[in-house]
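Hi C.,

You asked whether I'd gotten around to modeling the 287-residue construct. I have! Everything is below, sequence then structure, no commentary in between.
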Amino acid sequence: MSPILKAALWMSGAIASFSTMAVAGREAAAQLDTFEIMMYRSLIGVVVVVVVAVITGTWRQINRDSLGAHLVRNMAHFTGQNLWFYAVTVIPLAQVFALEFTSPLWVIVLSPLILGERLTLVRGIAAIMGFIGILIVARPDMAGINAGVVTAAASAIFFALTIMFTKRLTRSQSITCILFYLTTMQLVMGLIAAGYDGDIALPDAASLPFVIMIGFAGLLAHYCMTNALAIAPATVVVPIDFIRLPAIAIIGMLLYNETVDVWVFLGAGIIFAGNYLNIWVETRQKT
């Protein structure tokens, strides 16, 4: 199997995990604020990463190299994720994902500068096709800008930075090391942000299952994405994530009665076409 196809499979796991996290985040937000959600998510992540590292013997891979890059990556992700969790509670899920998915445009533009990757014509076309498909699916009404739209759009910039610094870290750091600092650093950030007012809410019986889902889904999403980024360029991996939009649009329709019409499927077709073009050309170049 080619590295590009392997990356596509890893991203399928990331897509499922991010979608699960969106639904669980909306449900948990009925009792917890975004800082508390991030804190509990990171706490669960620390436990899982440490246990798995000890069992698999990868604990020795955790080192203090590149702490600055880890810190920048996790500050960007913590900020973007908090904005994202807020957005999923106030605007339709498809609209959140549509605005979030402007991040690949930032990645494609900035990757040559930050990662030294080559921007090819096909990668640019694939990203543009995906973005056009997103606009067709969600059709965000920029005339009615509100807090949810602004936070979702802002989260995309921070997610783009997260993706690029993750790619840089995979050049010298193991996945265990990256996930360890992902969870521990953001646990500290979450404790500070959630506890600055001296009041940290405990999840009740209704929200606890969703908090646990967020913790496991968030960790699995990053594990899958980190694996994908470790074996393929960011400008190849990121456009695959566009598939998450039609998936979440359908989930929003089924769970929250959010409107889904023929435009969703038309946009999804364009998104799939762009992704297929990108993967097909990259695969042929590797053979």
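If it helps when you're writing up: The chain has one domain: 3-286.

Thanks,
B.
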